[in-house]
Amino acid sequence: MRRSAPARWDITLLLCALALLTACSSRTSQSPKANASYTSIAAWRNIEDLPRAIAQFETVFWEPADTDSLRLLIRSTGLVKNRTVMEIGTGTGLISLCCAQYGAKQIVATDINSNAVTCANFNAAWLNLNRRIETRLVSEDKSGAFQVIGDNERFDFIISNPPWVEQKVRNLAEYALYDPGWHLLTTLMDGLPAHLNPGGRCLLAYGSVSGVKAVIRESQKRGFKCIIKDDRNLDDLEEEFLPGMLLEVIVPPDRIQATLLSAPAP
Q1: Domains along the sequence of the chain with CATH
Q2: Angle value at C-alpha 56, between 3 and 46, nearest 5 degrees
Q3: Which of 90, 106, 116 is nearest to 37 (CA)?
Q4: For the chain, what is the largest distance between any 2 Cα atoms, rounded to a whole number of angstroms?
Q5: Average pLDDT, stretch 66-87?
Q6: What are phi and psi of 34, to 5 degrees?
Q7: Within a 13 Å sphere around the CA of 78, how many CA atoms are in the beta-carbon half?
Q8: Residue 14 has pLDDT above 70, yes or no
Q9: At residue 178, what are phi and psi to the nearest 5 degrees?
Q10: What is the Cβ-side half-sphere exposure of residue 202, based on CA atoms within 13 angstroms?
Q11: Would you place residue 50 in the very low, low, confident or very high pLDDT band (cuts 50, 70, 90)?
């Protein structure tokens, strides 16, 4: 389900659009350097949440069924309207684009794959949502969940469809598939109290039994609560399954408040 590699389409006609995007993306904290991959798109993807197809760049992950329930919640409930959002592992930008489309005030979207950051930037500009989406490139050397987030930055929602297989990564594209030693998950959990606003929420989409169990385990270690927002029974599922399962990690309010009291002055 997470193994297929996209084929290459040359899109020379989009060079002008990409040049405009690069000029307009001054809000991106680390803009990837220009390279040949900017002129290649693996596919155009239609998704019901957005008014037109979005691009999937080479090496950038795509499996919308991972986040069916999350996107339904975003588009049907006003969940993120006028709220601030952080998305960890944005890929094509799909979730961030949905948040912007349905009224989020501001979104910070991060990824470790430079093609993903470029792809998300492209799609945000393509849909005229780039004023509310800021992308940030995570370094492989410092790959924690909040590595490119300031100490005092907080959000109403922290959202992710993270990799859910605990396995070694061999190349950048595989960061969308594998989480070695559950490093991304554990750093995400560790940073929640310091980066959620009071009343803030963390929503995760996982499509493997071991991944869901890891979220539950890591939540319990920290005194958090993990709620599975899905009617399926884990024991009845294959190890990897679709659609993905929506989880909410609840951080006790006093834990968030404690980080506010101890936070350094801006």
Answers
A1: 9-262 (3.40.50.150)
A2: 100
A3: 116
A4: 53
A5: 97
A6: -65, 140
A7: 1
A8: no
A9: -125, 145
A10: 26
A11: very high
- Angle, to 10 degrees, between the axis of helix 183-195 and the axis of helix 209-221? 40
List the Cα angle 109/201/247 in 5-degree steps: 90
Identify the band that residue 92 occupies on the pLDDT scale cut at 50, 70 and 90.
very high
Residue 2 sits at φ, ψ, to 5 deg, of: -115, 25
CA-to-CA distance for 143 and 150, rounded, in angstroms? Answer: 14
Written as one letter, the residue type at 161 is N
DSSP 64-117: GGGGHHHHHHHHHH-TTTT-EEEEES-TTSHHHHHHHHTT-SEEEEEES-HHHH
Per the model's pLDDT, the better-predicted residue between 219 and 24 turns out to be 219
Secondary structure letter of residue 156 according to DSSP = E
Tokens of 93: 């930008």
Joined together, the tokens standing for residue 87 give: 């998305």
What is the overall mean pLDDT for the chain? 88
Distance of alpha carbon 114 from alpha carbon 169, whole angstroms: 16
Q: Which residue has the higher pLDDT, 59 or 36?
A: 59
Helices 114-126, 94-101: crossing angle, 10 deg rounding: 30
At residue 13, does pLDDT exceed 80?
no
Output the six-digit token pair for 86. Answer: 């952080």
